[in-house]
Amino acid sequence: MSRPEEIVAIDLGTTNSEAAVVGSDGRVKLLKNRAGRKKTPTAIWFDKDGKVFGQQAKRMEKVEPDKVLFQFKPELDQDGNQFNVDSRKLGPVKLAQLFYQEIKDQAQERLGEEVNRAVLTIPAWFHQIGRETLKKGAEKAGFKVERILREPASASLAYALDTPLNREEKILVYDLGGGTFDTSVLVANEKDGRPDLKILGNRGDTSLGGRDFDRKILEEFFVEKFRQKHGTDPTDQKRVEAEWLERAKDLKEELSEADRSKDMLQADGEVVSVELTRREFADLINEEITRTVDILEELLNEVGIEKDELDRLVMVGGSSRIVPIREKVSKLVGLEQETGIDPDLAVVSGAALVAGTKADRTIRDENGVRVPLLAGEIKEVVSRGLGVKAYDPQTGEYYNEVLIEPGEPLRATGTEMFNPKEDDSDLVKITIVEGSSNNLEECRILKEGYKLSISNPRASNLVEIEVGLAINKDGLVEVIAETDDGDELREEFENPDLIDDGE
């Protein structure tokens, strides 16, 4: 009997990325990189001899900052973004492809076999643009994408397997990584001895994370201390800025273990000694901490759950280790955070369980007991509303006709009947909108220019057009439009802003 084909789980993070599979013993196996580490810095150095990834690339940011891309994941979720590095321009898909290809190559070396299938994880609050970018990047790297999992759901699955459920439980996931923040509420149960997870709602901020804390230390502490003593700000030099950001990150991480941390900063032949206490650090990042708590409370209100109804608090992402954050979130919900799994590795571990079941692997818990786990047991929901741009003849204004509301289960659909704006139209253009507000200014235009031909033009009130949107299990969109004469448009979402040039 042939061995089943391997499916690798990949968590492309802002600061570090990880890959994992389910091993022959039925347990999650983190794949180490060439340096023997489980975490690979999400950094690329464009050296004159080629591209270098990981720890060495991250180090070179201090030496050749113009040739290094690091912590670029949040920017993959922005429209029309391009990355300038070493006099080149890279589109977001190309950049994602490069890093997925590196993970693929390292996984194949570690496993000793070809790997062509993957389960990806993404922030729950990513827009369609970010989801599409990561999927296309992985496909261009040679992967068949078996499933895309929201990071909080994936982490919850890992914790649910690590600590068996005894009854239905409501879980709050607080996921604060290097560049993105997600929070989700799930209902977890056991069904036939296996975890059964249903997401009730997601919220977040795709541009908030640990790198913001590093920059706060740099700009409001390091620079101020140096300016007080020497009267200058040397961080206008990219090498100094890169080195001091790395020192700020080290200081931040040390404050998770100690009440205070010291360092010595050097620039332009001048030196200054600095000391930062945990209390000072908490004050420094209070605005960002408050922002995450506000988002968390908005989510609880949205899904209609009181804090005292929560049974578990799962905190993942490297920045969740920061003591003032742990303390504030725990105090807010009245729960201690779950322990037992590395917060940095929870997301990829949960995704590996899904990948393992898709590869027909037997999953076993810590005691070696077989766990009947199925990928379909993570029931995810739509994070952001979707609609179409519509015209109101009464007001003469355009608005967003929401077809799919947030909170609907994935594989969601929504339809509405419309008429052409003008009489005798032989072509109708359809614009897809991301957002739950009717006000277009509060939404994001996903794509303009879907074209539906009208075979029998006539008075607009005599032409009925049914427009539908469908979201598949990976959160990707399909557009469907039909007239009563049988004219039809059916396309998968393709964003024209995913520029894929470079090299």
Could you characterize what this model shows?
This protein is an alpha+beta fold. The chain has two domains: about 5-205 and about 290-380, ATPase, nucleotide binding domain (Nucleotidyltransferase, domain 5, 2-Layer Sandwich); about 385-490, Sandwich (Substrate Binding Domain Of DNAk, Chain A, domain 1). Helices cover about 25% and strands about 35% of the residues. It has ten helices and 28 strands. Strands 1, 2, 3, 4, 10 and 11 form a six-stranded mixed β-sheet that branches. Strands 17-12-13-14-20 form a five-stranded mixed β-sheet, sandwiched between helices. Strand 2 (about 15-20) and strand 3 (about 30) form a beta hairpin. Helix 4 crosses helix 10. The model has no long low-confidence stretch (mean pLDDT about 90).
Q: Could you give a quick summary of the protein structure above?
A:
This protein has 503 residues and is an alpha+beta fold. The protein contains 10 helices and 28 strands.
Q: How many domains is the backbone divided into?
A: 2
Helix content: 25-40%
Number of helices: 10
Structural class: alpha+beta
> What's the CATH class label of the largest domain?
Alpha Beta
Low-pLDDT windows of residues: none
Detail the topology: elements first, then pairings.
Elements: E1 7-12, E2 16-22, E3 28-30, E4 40-41, E5 43-47, E6 50-53, H1 55-60, E7 68-70, E8 83-85, E9 88-90, H2 92-111, E10 117-122, H3 128-140, E11 144-150, H4 151-162, E12 169-176, E13 181-191, E14 194-205, H5 210-230, H6 238-254, E15 260-267, E16 270-277, H7 278-284, H8 286-303, E17 312-316, H9 323-333, H10 346-358, E18 363-364, E19 370-371, E20 378-379, E21 386-392, E22 397-404, E23 413-418, E24 427-434, E25 444-453, E26 465-471, E27 477-483, E28 488-492
Helix pairs in contact: 2-3, 4-10, 5-6
